[in-house]
Amino acid sequence: MLYLSDELALRIRTHAAESYPHECCGAVLGSDSGSWREVLDLFPLVNRHDDSPRNRFVITPEDFRAAEQAARKGGLEVIGWYHSHPDHPARPSEYDREHAWPWYSYVIASVMQHLPKDMKSWRLKDDRTEFDEEEMEITPLGTINGGRVNAGEGDHPDRASALRGQARKR
Question: Is domain 2-169 in CATH 3.20.20.105, yes or no?
Fold first, then answer.
């Protein structure tokens, strides 16, 4: 399960609409409990794919390092990546599969004729053969799992609040 605040979902959709007709991209920063993830910040990036930015995006090693540094600075980790699909559904392409890594969450925002539409999250299987859709819940800022952390998973609700506070201080 991936928890994303409505404010961060809006930031992804806005980035996608502003980049149209090209793909936007960025890092998803947050925390991973092992059974659920919470997105606490985003690190927008420039799509560096020169010859086909309308249907491809590239993140350079420098971009990757900058995203990791931003995450560490906020006490977070890079838990995934987001990008848009201009005039296409919010599901991974074969190109996405070939360039993805297992473990990360891949949030894809569909943009149709400049307007943000569906947004879904995906996880690449360990054998890299295909993506599974990752359940995603968009919540009001400051809540997770309806305001509760799943019981019995070793996390305390105050941990999520503390991480949120760290992300906002940046």
Answer: no
